TrEMBL record:
Organismal lineage: Bacteria, Bacillati, Actinomycetota, Actinomycetes, Actinomycetales
Top-level taxon of origin: Bacteria
Organism per entry: Flaviflexus salsibiostraticola
InterPro entries named in the record: Rossmann-like_a/b/a_fold, Universal_stress_UspA, UspA
Coiled-coil segments: none
Family listed: Belongs to the universal stress protein A family.
A Pfam family assignment: Usp
Spans through the membrane: none
PANTHER family per record: STRESS RESPONSE PROTEIN NHAX, UNIVERSAL STRESS PROTEIN UP12
Protein name per the record: Universal stress protein
Domain UspA per the UniProt entry, residue ranges: 7-139, 149-282
Length: 284
């Protein structure tokens, strides 16, 4: 384990962050990996100058956050190796930098304002978009800890890598995988279209695309025959389908857009799931 990359979790000492810390500890223990807990001091910029160095009181506060987090983990998982770090810098920048040497990152969904219970905060969004490793975004909410892992599938190759990630995770977690292929836009309104050549053509295009995805699923699932997995096709909006499925799942796995670092983004579906599902893994 000495050379194993850690599970890294960011915390600001809040209740939501505490939930993420405990989930990160559970993940680390399940995968026999060390846990690194990180907090950050973000300097306040004045009009003409700023002092980036934290005061002694601020350092004490940061160390208290870390020690309290360690204590919470020890109460449940006494055998997880723990490292504690505080850094000076924007929290999202600190965590993205840390992702280069992480097996996975865990962040809490901490939004602000009247919609905070529905939306993730800016830190979680930036980290999920820019990190160099898989990112778990955790919020306490309605989900089934004993349910399957749901993977969102799409025609893009990145979703097949998400499926691989979901299957590997399911093996370690001792659960099953449900691969969900849904349709947006035209497919969602197919039932409302008038019968005719255009509807027949669109129906054929949809089924061709679904069959191709099903074949790709079968090929990958065969390589993970020891994991129970099913393919499900729904003619509905992908976002709605995955958010609905999240309440019956222990985790929803989505893929980012982009094949390289410079064009890495979260697509509309992945971003919506990130904002509304209780437990999400952005698979990289």
């Amino acid at each position: 384990m000495a050379d194993a990359l850690p599970i890294i979790v960011g915390t600001d000492g809040s209740i939501r962050a505490r939930y993420a810390v405990l989930e990160a500890a559970r993940i680390a223990r399940t995968h026999s990996l060390p846990l690194r807990i990180i907090t950050a001091h973000s300097p306040l910029f004045a009009i003409t100058s700023f002092d980036p160095e934290p005061t002694s009181e601020e350092i004490e506060r940061l160390e208290t956050i870390l020690s309290d987090s360690e204590g919470a983990v020890r109460d449940r998982y006494h055998d997880v190796p723990i490292e504690l770090e505080w850094h000076v810098g924007d929290p999202s920048t600190v965590l993205v930098a840390a992702s280069k040497t992480a097996a996975a990152l865990v962040v809490g969904a901490r939004g602000q304002g009247a919609m905070h219970h529905m939306l993730v905060g800016s830190v979680a969004t930036k980290v999920a978009t820019l990190a160099r490793c898989p990112v778990f975004v955790m919020r306490s909410g309605e989900f089934n800890p004993d349910g399957p892992i749901t993977v969102g599938l799409a025609p893009e190759e990145t979703s097949l890598r998400a499926l691989e990630c979901g299957l590997r995770l399911a093996r370690v977690e001792g659960t099953s995988v449900r691969a969900l292929r849904a349709h947006q836009h035209a497919a969602a309104g197919l039932r409302n279209m008038l019968e005719g050549e255009h509807k027949d053509w669109l129906r054929g295009e949809i089924m061709t695309s679904v069959e191709q995805t099903r074949q790709q699923f079968d090929e990958i699932a065969e390589q993970h025959a020891d994991v129970s997995s099913t393919f499900l096709h729904i003619q509905a909006h992908a976002t709605d389908s995955l958010i609905d499925a999240s309440r019956m799942s222990r985790l929803v796995v989505v893929a980012p857009n982009g094949q390289s670092l410079k064009d890495r983004t979260l697509g509309s579906v992945a971003l919506a799931v990130l904002h509304h599902a209780p437990t999400v893994l952005v698979a990289r």
